[in-house]
Write a structure and sequence with these properties.
single chain; alpha+beta; 3-stranded antiparallel beta sheet; two-stranded antiparallel sheet; elongated
Length: 92
C-alpha cells in the first residue's frame, strides 16, 4: 500500500481535471478550509455518494488509568466524525 501525500494528490487531481497543479492545490486548500470552517461552525457536511462529516460532543465521564488503576475524570470534548456512504463503500 502506498501513501499519497498532498502534493501527489494535487498532481493526480490536476491530471483528472485537465488543469495545472497550482490550480488543483488552490482547489484543495479551498476545500479543506471550507470543510473545516463548516464543521467549526457546528454544521454537518454531507457529500451525497461519498460521506457525511460532523462534530459530535462527548460528555465528561469517569475512567481508569491503566497503569495505576486510579479513577480519573475525563473532560467533555468535541470529536470530528466521518461516515462513508454505502455507495462509496461498495466500490471496494
Amino acid at each position: 500500500m502506498q501513501v499519497i501525500g498532498k502534493a501527489a494528490f494535487c498532481e493526480e487531481m490536476a491530471n483528472v481535471m485537465g488543469t495545472s497543479t497550482a490550480q488543483a492545490k488552490a482547489w484543495y486548500e479551498a476545500f479543506v478550509n471550507t470543510f473545516t470552517k463548516v464543521l467549526k461552525d457546528g454544521d454537518k457536511v454531507q457529500l451525497v455518494g461519498f460521506m457525511t462529516a460532523e462534530v459530535k460532543k462527548k460528555p465528561a465521564r469517569n475512567g481508569i488509568n491503566p497503569l495505576t488503576k486510579q479513577k480519573i475524570k475525563i473532560k467533555a470534548s468535541k470529536v470530528p466524525t466521518v461516515k462513508l456512504s454505502a455507495s462509496f463503500k461498495a466500490l471496494f
